[in-house]
Amino acid sequence: MSDSLAVAVYGAAGALGKEVRVGLEGSELDIEKLVAVGGVASTADTIPWHGKQIAVIAPPELVPGSVDVAILAAPAHVAAAETARLRAHDVLVVDLSGGATIDGAPLPVVWPPVAREALERHPGGFALPCAAASTLAPVLAAITGTGLRGGQVDVVELAAATDAGQKGSEALSRQTVGLLSYQLVDAAPFSDSLAFNVLSLDADDDAARAARTEREVRELVPGVARCRATTLRIPVFLGTVVVVTARFPGQTPDAVAIAAALDEHPDLNLVEDTLSLRDAGDSDVVLVTQPVIDGDTVRVFAAADPLHRIGTRVAMTLELVANEDLW
Question: In this structure, what is the dihedral angle of CA atoms 160, 301, 203, 219, given to the nearest 10 degrees?
Answer without folding.
Answer: 110
